[in-house]
Amino acid sequence: MYELDISRDFSAAHSLCGYNGNCSALHGHNWTVQVFVRAAELDQIGIAVDFKKLKKELDAILEELDHTHLNENDDFKTVNPTSEVIAKYIYSKLSAKINDGNVKVYRVRVCESPTSGASYYAD
Predict the structure, then answer these.
(1) What b/e string do you get for 38-58 counting C-beta neighbours within 10 Å, with b at 16 or more?
(2) pTM, to two decimals
């Protein structure tokens, strides 16, 4: 099994409704997103999946989030856009674009700071 990963960044604001603390107020983060994909086999030239393809698909998802107020995104209107929720959101959207018989998005990690992040993966 092969595992590849890429990392990208975006900036966005959010607030956490129902949170008892400062995070209930509008605030922003410079988010880092790490994507891990797995492949059972390599192609004829020794590649599991082209990094350019991974980056292009992830960039398209992050472009929708970059420099926005995440709570106003239709996908986050009924759920707080926490690191956990954003990780699952990206995992689902990217899986629909990347997964095939050989390549599968394995895990997505979203960090709201250099020391705090959350991952999502399906069992």
Answers:
(1) bbeeeeeeeebbeeeebeebb
(2) 0.95
